[in-house]
């Protein structure tokens, strides 16, 4: 709508007896005031909206960090329990089994981080190929 008004003003200025440079000044002042008005309205609305969004994102990030910390603690405790139950005589061998695998015939010998990583990569590649 502002464009229609601006076009109408330009047509009226062409028909008027105002000098050419004055016409351009009037048009540029109108455009500038319209832009300033839009910017001031955006600033008032945007600041409130953005501040609410940022505070919500901060709260969400804190909740995610807390959840991740709890999940990490659970994983650490499970792995510690696994090492203590499956490798009671040699905990160092248990840590090695967790990281890269072990040749011992126990439950956790083949469930290393490397094996899980390879399995996850293969799973995702298969999904990509099927879709």
Which SSEs are present, and which pair or pack?
Blueprint: H1 2-15, H2 20-86, H3 91-99, H4 113-130
Task: Characterize the structure shown.
The chain has 131 residues and is mostly helical. It has 2 domains: 86 residues; 44 residues. It is built from 4 helices and no strands.
Main β-sheet description: none
State the helicity in percent bands. Answer: over 70%
Q: Kindly, what is the distance between the CA atoms of the first and last residues, rounded to a whole number of angstroms? A: 47 Å
Strand content: under 5%
Q: So how many helices?
A: 4
| Tally of domains | 2
What's the SSE pattern?
HHHH
Number of strands: 0
State the gist of this model.
It contains four helices and no strands.
Name the descriptors:
single chain; 131 residues; mainly alpha; 2 domains; 82% helix
């Amino acid at each position: 709508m502002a464009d229609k008004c601006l076009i109408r003003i330009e047509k009226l200025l062409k028909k008027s007896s105002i000098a050419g440079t004055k016409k351009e000044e009037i048009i540029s002042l109108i455009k500038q005031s319209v832009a300033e008005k839009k910017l001031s309205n955006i600033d008032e609305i945007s600041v409130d909206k953005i501040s609410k969004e940022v505070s919500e994102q901060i709260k969400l990030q804190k909740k995610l960090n807390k959840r991740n910390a709890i999940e990490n603690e659970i994983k650490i405790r499970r792995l510690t329990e696994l090492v203590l139950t499956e490798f009671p005589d040699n905990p160092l061998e248990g840590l090695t089994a967790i990281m890269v695998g072990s040749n011992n015939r126990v439950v956790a010998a083949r469930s290393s981080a490397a094996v899980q990583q390879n399995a996850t990569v293969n799973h995702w590649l298969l999904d990509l190929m099927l879709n």
